[in-house]
Design brief:
Number of strands of chain B: 14
Number of domains of chain B: 1
Strand content of chain B: 35-45%
Structural class of chain B: mainly beta
Helix content of chain A: 10-25%
CATH class of chain A: Mainly Beta
Strand order of the largest sheet of chain A: 1-2-3-5-7-10-11-12
Number of strands of chain A: 12
Structural class of chain A: alpha+beta
Number of helices of chain B: 1
Largest interface: A-B, 13 and 18 residues
Largest sheet of chain A: 8 strands, antiparallel, barrel
Distance between the termini of chain A: 45 Å
Helix content of chain B: 10-25%
Order of helices and strands of chain A: HEHEEHEEEEEEEEE
Distance between the termini of chain B: 90 Å
Oligomer: heterodimer
Number of helices of chain A: 3
């Protein structure tokens, strides 16, 4: 009988301890001031460049899908529910279709000229880096945590397009023309644009301080501006002419990612 | 101290080996070439590249002249290879395998093109039409004919030097013929006239 009571007391003690730990864990999520999240995932284009220029469509990869890694979020909660988040999101876009872009250019001249097109430089994967900041709200339920937020910041576009060159020789004629198609992305080859991103993260805490999370960002870039210049060197006329084309459009993408998060009190 | 001495001796041996290798190169020969004569052929530039015309009829916009400068060997002199010239790394000294250097003696001072037949309303037979021709269709021949270009060949035996002169203006008539005069630095002149070509 005595042993039975002792066992019961021990069980009660354990249960109360577990419950206390559970409560402490739940409280920890409520009380944590910092959350650091690392994620990787994919980028899905929703709305691309509105330009109908077939060359631009094929030569750029700004509106193509891709991936991102490592998305880094640092959230600081200045109250129990409200906080501010800083997000660093580097995207890597799929390369542009240089073959199709070049073929489009060739097709413009093929009826009148023999076209010799040097192969365009392999388009490096474009890197777009977003730096965003905004308010976030914490909703906790057991081990689950939901963090809706509205982020705002800047995008930095870098190295998206290849340059093309065509050597044209007139059919049944002596005219020779060299055409260059060069992308102008400002002096530093980097362009900066605004980005607005309503985002939601869902987190499930595996341990007291560590959780797994999935998130979805809707990225709205209201004004993306890219330009290219064509330079025509006509040897017969001994003259060089240049023309610059400027394209402005909005971009909309959705990112979906998963990763881990660390809670710091 | 002993180790330093050993290194010094090894270094001296390496330097001596390099000098020995470089000094053992055979003497080179520098051949001198000069223009012997010129030859003209009509070019058909209707395709992607100019080719020697096989017929005496060409389209008006596809005419060109191939100027061939035939060279002869006019002399040679021995050349000595400077020490270490070929040595990229210490202890290695490669000699020129063939032992000869091609060189030129002549400089083309001017090239002038005259029309042998009436070309257009402003260029009657005998008029200078040098500026109507572009080298390879891209670089205009200077109107005054001053060319100032040394001939260069990197072969052991003389070989012809070619220039493609592409006619960038259309003749107003159905026939054309040109006389080309090449003057070299020594003052010697070479002159040739193309065959009459029918233009369509």
């Amino acid at each position: 009988m005595k042993a039975y009571f002792l066992f019961l007391a021990a069980m009660l003690c354990c249960i109360s301890r577990i419950e206390a730990q559970k409560k402490e864990q739940l409280d920890y999520a409520e009380q944590s001031k910092f959350i650091l999240s690392l994620e990787a995932g994919g980028l899905i284009p929703v709305h691309g460049f509105s330009s109908q220029d077939p060359f631009l469509k094929n030569a750029t990869n700004i509106d193509k899908g891709g991936g991102f890694f490592p998305l880094t979020r640092v959230t600081y909660f200045f109250s129990k529910k409200w906080g501010a988040e800083f997000e660093f999101l580097p995207w890597i876009l799929k390369p542009s279709n240089t073959g199709q872009a070049q073929q489009y250019l060739i097709n413009q001249y093929i009826s009148k000229y023999y076209v010799n097109a040097s192969s365009p430089m392999t388009n490096p994967d474009a890197l777009v880096v977003s730096f965003m900041i905004g308010p976030t709200y914490k909703i906790t339920s057991g081990r689950f945590m939901i963090l809706p937020k509205l982020l705002f910041g800047i995008n930095s576009y870098d190295g998206m397009m290849s340059n093309y060159s065509l050597h044209l020789k007139e059919k049944n004629g002596n005219e020779i023309i060299d055409n260059q198609y060069n992308w102008n992305q400002d002096a530093s080859s980097t362009q900066v644009g605004w980005v607005l991103s309503p985002t939601c993260s869902f987190s499930y805490r595996l341990l007291r301080r560590i959780g797994i999370n999935v998130s979805a960002n809707y990225l709205y870039c209201p004004s993306v501006r890219i330009t290219y210049t064509t330079t025509e060197q006509n040897y017969k006329l001994q003259q060089q002419t240049s023309q610059t084309y400027v394209y402005k459009s909005s971009l909309q993408n959705v990112t979906v990612g998963a990763g881990i998060s660390f809670l710091i009190k | 101290m002993k180790l330093t001495r050993i290194f010094c001796w090894l270094l001296l041996l390496m330097i001596a080996g390099t000098i020995e290798a470089c000094c053992n190169c055979p003497e080179g020969l520098r051949y001198l070439f000069a223009i012997d004569k010129i030859k003209l052929q009509i070019l058909d530039n209707s395709g992607p590249n100019p080719v020697v015309a096989s017929a005496d009829t060409l389209c008006k916009k596809c005419y060109g002249v191939l100027l061939e400068l035939e060279t002869v060997k006019v002399g040679q002199h021995k050349t000595r290879q400077p020490l270490f010239m070929e040595s990229a790394y210490a202890g290695v000294c490669e000699c020129l395998s063939s032992g000869f250097i091609g060189d030129s003696k002549d400089t083309i001072q001017s090239i002038q093109v005259f029309t042998a037949l009436d070309f257009d309303s402003t260029h009657k037979a005998g008029a200078d039409v040098t500026s109507y021709f572009f080298v390879d269709g891209t670089k205009p021949l200077p109107a005054n004919g001053i060319f100032n270009q040394p001939i260069y060949t990197n072969t052991e035996e003389p070989k012809p030097i070619d220039y493609n002169f592409i006619l960038m203006h259309e003749s107003a008539y159905s026939q054309c013929q040109f006389r080309i005069v090449v003057t070299v630095a020594s003052g010697k002149q070479f002159e040739q006239t193309t065959a009459v070509t029918h233009l369509i």
